[in-house]
Specification:
The chain contains twelve helices and 19 strands. By secondary structure, the chain is an alpha/beta fold. Strands 1, 12, 13, 14, 15, 16, 17, 18 and 19 form a nine-stranded mixed β-sheet that branches. An eight-stranded parallel beta barrel has the order 2-3-4-5-6-9-10-11, surrounded by five helices. Strands 7-8 form a two-stranded antiparallel ribbon. Helix 8 packs across helix 10. The chain is globular, with a radius of gyration of 22 Å. The two termini are about 35 Å apart.
């Protein structure tokens, strides 16, 4: 693995003919991260979370590799677009209220065969039926299980507020409700443990909090593994030919893959490895997706200003949602200004070695959200840009 200084030098050489701001994906790091996901999945297929990639060319690249199968999408419109583009297995990870999209799905045999929709409430089935517009295609359905850890009789909850169903009897009843409704078929079950897969457990300078997170995650994994096995058994009593049980996420691939009840693993952020995925004991990846902002001012000693850079990530607001100045190492935000909409001052001794027009390389806090800021990802191999790929934005597709 190259040193950060060597990476900076080759990224600068590779993109010297391009004007910043710009975004790159280091293909060597991307492919190495993909290999690591497959290794950790232990023989179970990895379904790629498209929201963490948001670039069709890179989705195609990773799905062409052994060990990967299928896409986990984030909106119905995106799912239909991907299916029309040739992706044959698209699992929509969130319920939708896209009536026009459901009308298209119910009226197109190819789309209906390729796309699976998410359901955690019978009312969602009613919405689909109301939107069919005469279409009679059978809709593939995946049921979602609530994975949150509940303590003290449910008074304490740790985990995302997603599905309202969590017990085996509830999931079995939902499966029966789908099976009893003409035009729908249960094909899968999904359980995303974001409080384990998406929360770092080795926070720099915070040993006590890190220890508390590890204790919480250990308890959450044990509770969910037992409950998930019971839920899968209950659903299979209703749907013996269940096609898949999806679980996991980048931060918990190997633990979730070890569960017999799980048949496939979901992951996506582990391909780009944004800054929020630096703090894990379960794995370490290589930063593959970066963006560069040009130096446009030198306000004083130990200060430079770059153009733009204010690209915060979704989630609870806080410093960890900001991009991090990455190369050259040693730069930090001015606490009075932070990451700016149009310009961003950066402090630190490396600023004195930067000239007007030089680049500062950043890592986004999250993975695919970077692609909402750039039309193009320049693909770097060694010290050359060997190709460029349009992001969803670059293809005129803004789904959320």
């Amino acid at each position: 693995m190259n040193s950060p200084a060597a990476d900076r030098a080759r990224y600068d050489r590779a993109t010297a003919h391009l004007d910043a701001p710009l975004a790159i994906v280091d293909l060597e790091a991307f492919d190495a991260n993909a290999d690591d996901l497959v290794r950790r999945a232990g023989g179970k297929p990895v379904r790629v979370a498209s929201k963490s990639v948001r670039c069709r060319a890179l989705l195609e690249r990773v799905l062409a590799r052994p060990g990967f199968a299928g896409i986990m999408s984030y909106t119905l419109a995106e799912s239909l677009w991907l299916a029309r583009s040739g992706f044959e297995d698209v699992l929509l990870a969130y319920p939708s209220a896209d009536r026009a999209g459901f009308g298209e799905l119910a009226n197109d045999a190819k789309l209906a065969a390729a796309v699976t929709v998410m359901v955690d409430d019978p009312a969602q089935l009613e919405l689909v039926d109301a939107a069919r517009d005469g279409g009679g295609e059978e809709i593939r359905v995946c049921l979602e299980l609530d994975t949150a850890l509940q303590l003290l009789g449910g008074r304490v909850r740790v985990g995302a507020r997603r599905s309202p169903v969590r017990e085996p009897a509830q999931l079995a009843a939902l499966a029966r409700a789908v099976a009893a409704r003409p035009g729908f078929r249960v094909v899968g079950l999904m359980a995303y443990e974001g409080h384990v897969a998406g929360v770092g457990d080795a926070l720099a300078g915070r040993p006590l909090r890190s220890r508390a997170i590890r204790l919480m995650q250990g308890a959450a994994r044990r509770e969910l593994a037992a409950r998930r096995a019971e839920v899968v058994a209950a659903v299979r009593e209703v749907v013996p030919d269940l096609e898949f049980v999806n679980g996991g996420g980048t931060g918990s691939v190997q633990q979730t893959a070890a569960e017999d009840a799980v048949t496939e693993i979901a992951a996506g952020s582990g391909l780009y490895v944004p800054r929020l995925f630096d703090n894990y004991t379960s794995f370490s990846g290589r930063p593959a997706a970066l963006f560069a902002q040009p130096v446009v001012r030198r306000p004083g000693v130990g200060v430079v200003t770059v153009l733009g850079g204010g690209y915060p990530a979704s989630g609870a607001p806080g410093p960890d949602r900001l991009p991090v100045p990455y190369l050259p190492q040693g730069l930090r935000y001015d606490p009075q200004e932070g990451a700016g909409e149009v310009q961003t001052p950066l402090l630190g001794s490396p600023a004195d070695d930067l000239l007007i027009g030089d680049r500062v390389w950043f890592r986004h806090a999250k993975a695919g959200e970077l692609c909402e800021r750039f039309d193009t990802l320049h693909l770097v191999e060694g010290d050359r840009v060997t190709d460029s790929a349009a992001t969803y934005r670059g293809e005129g597709r803004t789904f959320l």
